[in-house]
TrEMBL record:
Alphabetized Pfam families for the sequence: MBOAT_2
Protein name: Wax synthase domain-containing protein
Lineage: Eukaryota, Fungi, Dikarya, Ascomycota, Pezizomycotina
Ranges of residues in domain Wax synthase: 61-130
Keyword rRNA-binding: no
Source organism superkingdom: Eukaryota
GO cellular component: membrane
Membrane-related topology note: Multi-pass membrane protein
Organism: Lasiosphaeria ovina
Ranges of biased composition (kind: Basic and acidic residues): 185-196
Keyword line: Membrane, Transmembrane, Transmembrane helix
Region (Disordered): 185-226
Signal peptide feature range: none
Transmembrane segment boundaries: 29-55, 234-254
GTP-binding in keyword set: no
């Protein structure tokens, strides 16, 4: 079984050591898997009992977690993928703060207030829950420091993402995807006259096949340009999405370690309820030397 001292990684220069970084990522992945599976299992059991007894309808139990495909920004991880247990309570508090501080609703400052309030509340409840089992393993001051280092930096990343995406949409994307220019078309009435009373333009005869081609029909060049523009737009969308996945992975590997380390200190690997899946996976990682290293 994984002992606490074997899970703790020295803080000095840990990010520069590939083996240590891989060990951290492995433990964080186990933590995510255990929390995700445990919460989904509890939710599904209660939902099955409620629906089976006729106390509720299936639509009363939407999925607890969202899709991993949406996790290309830190904001999406918390807003679309992760559970929303404290969303409504935290919104009530943040709306009160916005009114009390006379912050303009729907502004960037109001958005950041919502984020900060939600993560402060989440930080408090995690400290409260882990603090009940931390005596003898981890001082309360260290527990608060570990949890705060994780939760209180999340709104900063989300706010930074919002600013970067706004700047990209306003300044970068228009340069990468120049518009073709809108062609003005003269509206016509049923008599063939334009709104100004002048005779509408008469279709011209094509030089090659003799077919009638309206003057305002997009040319072949414009059609090809639009196709290229759409292809470039799709390529940029996929590239940004891939970059987003990499960014989110790196962000949580770095910032998630204090959170996981706090649980390692209180010997989460030894917990047996509802079943000791975490400990079994850690032992499996030790035996298989996952990613080419041993959990030392």
């Amino acid at each position: 079984m994984l002992a606490v001292q074997r899970a703790v990684v020295p803080s000095a220069g840990w990010a520069c050591d590939p083996l240590t970084l891989a060990r951290i990522a492995y433990l964080e992945a186990l933590m995510l898997l255990v929390v995700y599976c445990g919460m989904v299992m509890q939710f599904d059991v209660v939902a099955a009992v409620g629906v089976g007894l006729g106390l509720s309808e299936p639509e009363d139990w939407p999925p607890l977690f969202g899709s991993l495909a949406d996790c290309y920004t830190v904001g999406n991880v918390w807003g679309r993928f992760w559970h929303q247990y404290i969303r409504q309570p935290s919104l009530g508090v943040s709306h009160y703060l916005i009114r009390a501080l006379h912050i303009q609703p729907h502004s960037q400052l109001a958005y950041f207030t919502h984020l900060a309030t939600a993560f402060v509340i989440s930080d408090f409840f995690h400290v409260l829950s882990v603090g009940s089992v931390s005596p003898g393993f981890l001082p309360l001051s260290s527990l608060v420091a570990h949890m705060s280092r994780f939760f209180l930096v999340q709104p900063l990343a989300t706010a930074a993402e919002s600013i970067v995406m706004r700047l990209y949409a306003r300044h970068v994307q228009p340069r990468l995807l120049p518009s073709l220019g809108e062609q003005k078309q003269i509206p016509r009435d049923m008599s063939g006259k334009s709104d100004g009373g002048k005779a509408a333009s008469v279709p011209t005869v094509g030089e090659s096949d003799g077919s009638a081609i309206p003057k305002d029909m997009p040319s072949q060049h414009d059609t090809n340009s639009e196709r290229k523009r759409k292809a470039l737009q799709a390529l940029l969308r996929v590239s940004c999405r891939m970059f987003g996945y990499l960014w989110v992975l790196c962000w949580f590997v770095v910032t998630g370690w204090p959170f996981v380390k706090a649980y390692m200190h209180v010997r989460m690997a030894d917990w047996g309820l509802p079943y000791s899946i975490f400990g079994k996976l850690v032992v499996l990682g030790e035996r298989a030397e996952v990613l080419g290293f041993c959990i030392m």
